[in-house]
Amino acid sequence: xxxxxxxxxxxxxxxxxxxxxxxxxxxxxxxxxxxxxxxxxxxxxxxxxxxxxxxxxxxxxxxxxxxxxxxxxxxxxxxxxxxxxxxxxxxxxxxxxxxxxxxxxxxxxxxxxxxxxxxxxxxxxxxxxxxxxxxxxxxxxxxxxxxxxxxxxxxxxxxxxxxxxxxxxxxxxxxxxxxxxxxxxxxxxxxxxxxxxxxxxxxxxxxxxxxxxxxxxxxxxxxxxxxxxxxxxxxxxxxxxxxxxxxxxxxxxxxxxxxxxxxxxxxxxxxxxxxxxxxxxxxxxxxxxxxxxxxxxxxxxxxxxxxxxxxxxxxxxxxxxxx
Amino acid sequence: xxxxxxxxxxxxxxxxxxxxxxxxxxxxxxxxxxxxxxxxxxxxxxxxxxxxxxxxxxxxxxxxxxxxxxxxxxxxxxxxxxxxxxxxxxxxxxxxxxxxxxxxxxxxxxxxxxxxxxxxxxxxxxxxxxxxxxxxxxxxxxxxxxxxxxxxxxxxxxxxxxxxxxxxxxxxxxxxxxxxxxxxxxxxxxxxxxxxxxxxxxxxxxxxxxxxxxxxxxxxxxxxxxxxxxxxxxxxxxxxxxxxxxxxxxxxxxxxxxxxxxxxxxxxxxxxxxxxxxxxxxxxxxxxxxxxxxxxxxxxxxxxxxxxxxxxxxxxxxxxxxx
DNA sequence: ACGTGCCATTGACACGTGCAAGTAGACCGC
DNA sequence: GCGGTCTACTTGCACGTGTCAATGGCACGT
Lengths: 323, 323
What we know:
homodimer, 434 Repressor (Amino-terminal Domain), Rossmann fold, 3 domains, 12 helices, elongated, DNA-binding
């Protein structure tokens, strides 16, 4: 490379050795450096616009400040809850002097990680043990799940939905599942939590409604669901997007909400308050988790074991007009 | 570090020199290597699980494959259109052997970039010239705008809204602006485009409606807007989220859509089809842009100048029930 | 027998950094 | 006057990699 300013340049400019420059710039307390010399170095560095070259630093053995987050199958634009968590985590990690880097991961994570040399890798693929160990040996760097305790997190929201609806006197529940196949695994978790909570509370077996993408079709399916005996009086949706579809179907077919059925979603989507009627939902406070998780990751980056931190299972209901 | 497998280890394992190992692993065509030796190296590397150490490579002068995207003020969860573009760009760059890394940027971009040593930096702060040159000297790496031609892109959508509504016979337009202060600059661009297009088409001066967060309040403001003389018969919203707010306000106050006013948004939000009534919107096809931009960035990463590529100005209307 | 050309392989350097170990001079106590 | 301590530096190594230039062996033509 042509134009890189190195610490040798700074040393020459200041009329000192490279070691002295390094000591000053890194604030080494074990050395005694007179203020005059210190200023000479600082001035020279400033004048030349010196920036230490990361790769050389790492090569020398410095610990990387990078945390690499890999979320295969999760597009940035898609899951705004995950995106929110990642955003918050990035801020929290910065407090610990770490830098979160979110890579759009498909299969070829190797390439980036070679250049990145991160201190820690957080992978959402880590849930399945096979892919997990595969990653471990690919990186020779600590690999941890990106969303620890995700199953409990997902189930907790569904549990909160059912408990809330039961508390409001609803008895016959339906679960509105998404049709997209890639969501099937997480939907399955919600569905199980809804059934077991219903059973625990002594409610009849919940019904299942897979909501198609087509709006008119969704209306027909909702109508036929309401013909069941006993007819459902409440719908727990997989998330707020599915809940929007249910609300649209109800509106189109003239089903009063919450008069005939109550509808509740999950995630507290920003558009929820603007639905017709305004959508009740369920939300988990992740600020505590994010702070603890960031601290744990920082520990791992320093070579420690890192406490196990899990996403919250408890979820709060945000009550609006649809229930 | 203790456990790192280096090419020296591989060489020892294979009973060859490090140079030979390097030639084999990098597929250097200028060397003649007998198949037997080649296999010996490959086997040894495989057996030891060798992965080249990126920082050392970079130090030696290799070009980084990383493209760093900095979007201060843009949270991952917030702007799903930008997120979609970034997602697509990441995929496209991979075709060129580059890896896009999206950093949640606030002010402290330095830290990460030191560790990252990217080949190119794409910054959305680049629009203002001051911050731009500041970044340039911070990185000593090519810095380019993350969303080139953004102003034209934003204005184009607004122009398409007005042209479409005029074509459908609407004459008195209102612009629904967001209330969030950080959106004011971009909103201003849309607003200007709407007024100038209306003027060009011979429509009366459009009205301005700043949509408050509170739903009831929004209803009142819409009602009073409709009292104007001449009364508006169409609303161009800043984006689909604002359009949702307008639809909610119209529904709450009993204003028929599209009977009395037509409503059109921007962005083709995934929930748009589920609005009441389904939301018409405007969408720009960015696939062509993304492909060209990725190629340009790849050129810059190779040290070339890089062709100037701009976001599309043309936008297509997605017609639904609200117009 | 000997230069010539080819093949397979290797020794050595450079990249920029952090830091351990060394050194030259000044000052001090006896 | 001499060993010892302190200050203010510098010399030099190591990190892991890619690659130039050199080397030694072998076959071939004369």
